[in-house]
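dumping this here so i dont lose it
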């Protein structure tokens, strides 16, 4: 089951994103709660997949358990820092950009594109910084 979910992870993520956008268009009052549930679900999936990857690496090339748990801890912590930084930066950018852009569908599209770019930038920043901090 976990292998099936891991192999279809991109499709599941895209499907959940499309469902969220559809809910935003047709049922806007439920979109906030649905987006929080989706964030928790996707973060949980990423955590489980990260743990599974480290456990499989442990079985292939055994190291001591402390090293395996350390790797899991730092990868999950890096993931959570990435999510927190992306959420914070996106809120700041949206707070600045929304009054400048205005409302309407074009404003929503621009805000979504900006949020995506800021989230990718935050992920890149954490990846580069975290690699420097965790390598020996």
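and the seq i came up w/
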């Amino acid at each position: 089951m976990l292998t099936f979910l891991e192999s279809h992870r991109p499709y599941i993520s895209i499907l959940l994103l499309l469902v969220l956008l559809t809910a935003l268009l047709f049922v806007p009052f439920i979109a906030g709660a649905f987006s929080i549930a989706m964030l928790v679900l996707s973060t949980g999936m990423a955590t489980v997949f990260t743990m599974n990857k480290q456990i499989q690496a442990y079985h292939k090339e055994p190291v001591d358990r402390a090293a395996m748990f350390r790797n899991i801890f730092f990868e999950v912590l890096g993931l959570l820092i990435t999510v927190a930084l992306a959420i914070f930066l996106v809120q700041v950018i949206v707070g600045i950009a929304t009054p400048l852009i205005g409302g309407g569908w074009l404003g929503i599209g621009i805000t979504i594109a900006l949020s995506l770019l800021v989230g990718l930038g935050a992920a890149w920043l954490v990846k580069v910084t975290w690699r420097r901090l965790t390598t020996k």
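The longest helix spans residues 65-101.
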